[in-house]
Amino acid sequence: xxxxxxxxxxxxxxxxxxxxxxxxxxxxxxxxxxxxxxxxxxxxxxxxxxxxxxxxxxxxxxxxxxxxxxxxxxxxxxxxxxxxxxxxxxxxxxxxxxxxxxxxxxxxxxxxxxxxxxxxxxx
Length: 123
What we know:
The protein is built from no helices and 11 strands. Helices cover 0% and strands 50% of the residues. The strands form 2 sheets. Strands 2, 4, 5, 6, 9, 10 and 11 form a 7-stranded mixed beta sheet that branches.
């Protein structure tokens, strides 16, 4: 059983940056595609970005150009660099690992989940 733990959330102002980290207690190269999802109050969990085992990224339109996803398989870690943050980015951000489904944006397609880290962006 692999456990993943997020860190790096916080309260920032619009325009600021944050870097989220997802640490796994097992080799991330066995976790296939990994992803960052986010869930705002009253909304469904949505994909923010995903990254394949060899490092190919994929972004949802609303974060493209502002967020950068990366992974370091040697350190069993995935990152999400978030720049130019907006109030609408406020959400709990979840690390998802080991894509075993068909659709990248489907939360049910990932086998392992962290507990989430809160990101709050004020105006």
